[in-house]
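Quick illustration for those who missed Monday's session on complexes.
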Amino acid sequence: MNRKYRKVIIAGNWKMNKLASDVRPFLQELRGAMPKAKTCDTVICAPAVLATSITRTMRDTRIVCGAQDVSEHDFGAYTGEISASMLADIEVRYCIVGHSERRQYHNETDFQVSAKVKKLLSAGVTPIICVGESLLQREYGLTFDYVTYQTKAALSGLEAKDVRKCVIAYEPIWAIGTGKTATAIQAQEVCAKIRTVIRDNFDARTARSVSILYGGSMNSKNCAELLAQPDIDGGLIGGSSLDPAELAKIIESTVDFE
Ligand code: PEP
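Prediction with phosphoenolpyruvate bound:
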């Protein structure tokens, strides 16, 4: 990580876990266990039905609420969808876009990811754009090509000043929820590649200022090595974000890096 140029972000992805009654006790325990000084931006990306409860409980704290998906449309007859302005209205600050589970189970395309990014930016919500290869793509030596394609597609049509408002999360699909983490070297080389893609398609200042997170079975034991890498500016954390004590340890580990 490089605090001089970029925000350090630890974002939990609760996926479809937890109930409204879990929110207050979770956050109380998390706040109690977190380091006193602000060491990173802490985000809880929760199911949309919990967002209001989270934003209310976390008002005046250092923790902000994120969402896990957003509609590619502004408003209208889209049953079940939630728009970017609705998220902004309830003080959701970040939103995951293009998570591999959305791409896999809901056939989300790169075109939709790019549309969602634009809607979020217009509403003032920070997109956390997920990219990452499958095991087969890695074995075929296609990791860089695929991640380059996904990154370029998600950022297409944006100006550099908008790209600077985005966060990218490198999440190798084979590492998500499997307990199999990318090595620090594997994660660093792909995150560095993503930064190069941003530099080549926008400019050096933009590449330097975009926070790039690693996601895929990150936990309190492996986070230090991953976060020590120069191009990894934080984590997107699934399973380990469900336990407040574990999440607090990951947040605490960001203290050690300048
Ligand atoms: C995720 O789904 O974004 C994720 C990284 O999950 P896990 O930490 O459980 O691998």
